[in-house]
């Protein structure tokens, strides 16, 4: 049966319902598809899709998130490809939509992340499982308290330093936890910042994420030298993924609040 749908960015697409050969170009969504019981339907993923660890390696890695191998995708004969506006480029979507049905999600907040899970449930004929997952995440997040508006900067990249800014899922999570992201006043959603910006920001904590740039212990001193009196904290960037990871992340966030009250 063919279905007509409108995705999260307003694109119309037609696909065979329910799809049985899905390619996911979004690591967080790939994990979510497995959580929704669709492991048999997922036939392709990116090389960055690494969860669930014990299952996803059985699925061929056929692309990155910013680059695709169209011949490998064609060979899989997908009846639906799932992308995300931030994770994948417009050029990738425009290339793929010439040959395949493409659903594009847009995740910029905790609420839009939960909406995306529900939308996937509707599109993929697993509405009950999606609703259960969303309900579980809401319950876990509801139990989280808030810190007392501590000012933070969440670093995602080095050379140049880049931070999470406005209209990002990361910023939404920080706000939910009671932190005040000091770089939401910039035009870019992921602005570059320099030493002076960092020193003038009057932060209470600096968070160094483990991905996409792999910040580690050796980078803490570098930031500590810039702001000697500010705690520099390594955070697990994967816990700031949307989708099924949100359920696991709730416990991590609770511990983060205790570490950085």
Question: Strand count, sense and closure of the main sheet?
Answer: 6 strands, mixed
Strand content: 15-25%
The CATH topology of the largest domain is: Rossmann fold
- Fourth-tier CATH superfamily name of the largest domain: Nitrogenase molybdenum iron protein domain
Domain unit count: 2
CATH architecture of the largest domain: 3-Layer(aba) Sandwich
Number of helices: 10
- Helical content band: 25-40%
Extract low-pLDDT stretches: none
Description of the structure:
- It is a single chain.
- The protein is an alpha/beta fold.
- It folds into two domains: 2-140, Nitrogenase molybdenum iron protein domain (Rossmann fold, 3-Layer(aba) Sandwich), CATH 3.40.50; 151-259, Nitrogenase molybdenum iron protein domain (Rossmann fold, 3-Layer(aba) Sandwich), CATH 3.40.50.1980.
- Helices cover 37% and strands 20% of the residues.
- It contains ten helices and 13 strands.
- Strands 8, 9, 10, 11, 12 and 13 form a six-stranded mixed sheet that branches. The protein has a five-stranded parallel sheet with strand order 5-4-3-6-7, sandwiched between helices.
- Strand 6, helix 4 (90-96) and strand 7 form a beta-alpha-beta unit.
- The longest helix is centred in the middle third of the chain and has 16 residues, at 127-142.
- The relative contact order is 0.13.
- The model has no long low-confidence stretch (mean pLDDT 97).
């Amino acid at each position: 049966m063919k279905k007509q749908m409108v995705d999260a960015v307003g694109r119309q697409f037609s696909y065979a319902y329910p799809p049985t050969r899905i390619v996911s170009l979004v690591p967080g969504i790939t994990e979510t598809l497995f959580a929704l019981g669709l492991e048999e339907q997922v036939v392709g993923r990116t090389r960055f899709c690494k969860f669930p660890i014990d299952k996803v390696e059985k699925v061929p890695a056929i692309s990155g998130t910013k680059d695709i191998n169209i011949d490998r995708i064609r060979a899989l004969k997908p009846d639906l490809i799932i992308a995300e506006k931030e994770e994948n480029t417009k050029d990738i979507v425009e290339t793929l939509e010439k040959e395949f049905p493409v659903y594009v999600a847009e995740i910029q907040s905790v609420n839009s992340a939960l909406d995306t899970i529900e939308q996937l449930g509707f599109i993929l004929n697993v509405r009950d499982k999606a609703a259960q997952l969303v309900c579980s995440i809401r319950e876990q997040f509801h139990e989280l308290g808030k810190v007392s508006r501590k000012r933070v900067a969440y670093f995602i990249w080095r050379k140049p330093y880049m931070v999470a800014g406005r209209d990002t899922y990361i910023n939404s999570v920080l706000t939910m936890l009671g932190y005040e992201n000091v770089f939401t006043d910039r035009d870019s959603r992921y602005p570059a910042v320099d030493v002076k910006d960092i020193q003038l920001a009057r932060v209470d904590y600096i968070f160094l994420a483990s991905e996409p740039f792999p910040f580690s212990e050796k980078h803490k001193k570098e930031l500590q030298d810039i702001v000697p009196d500010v705690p520099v904290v390594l955070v697990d960037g994967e816990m700031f993924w949307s989708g099924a990871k949100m359920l696991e992340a709730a416990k991590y966030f609770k511990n983060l609040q205790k570490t950085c009250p």
